[in-house]
Amino acid sequence: MASIPKGLAAKARLKMSDGVELYIEIREDSKFSNFYTTFTARGRGRNRVKTQGMPRHRGYARDIEEAVRKITAVMKENEKRSRNQPRLLNTKIWIHRKRLYRKLISMRPDELGLTHTRSRPDPRLARAELVNAQNIPLPITYTPLEKRWKILTGRQ
Prior knowledge:
The protein has 156 residues and is of the alpha+beta class. It contains 4 helices and 5 strands, in the order ββββαβααα. It has a 5-stranded antiparallel β-sheet. The longest helix has 18 residues, at 64-81. The radius of gyration is 24 Å and the shape is elongated. The N and C termini lie far apart (67 Å). The model has no long low-confidence stretch (mean pLDDT 82).
């Protein structure tokens, strides 16, 4: 039995009638924009050729099972259009590290790297001068243009 690569939380395999296998993986270092990584594998053994597929974002599916269902639905729709299209034979899903998989699935988008948030102290403490207001990080919406506008209008 082959060892599980470090950081691999879950993997799904979709096997086609022409021998091509499509893999969908969720890894520990996955970001929001490429949460589900995909690749195709053709051949066996040393002749196996892997090609990187299009990554899917976290909003594409709530878990790996739903991602597999969506991709198989698209494949079956394409089968109807063309007779030369290879058929989907079977699918298999492995969840290698259950705790890591649950943690990644339950993470918020900002925890997965979609947005950047900066923690700011409570404004009431800053007004009461209990916290050094000079070290307050700038808000996300702050721009140099806003600073210039405040100087021009005389607002503080």
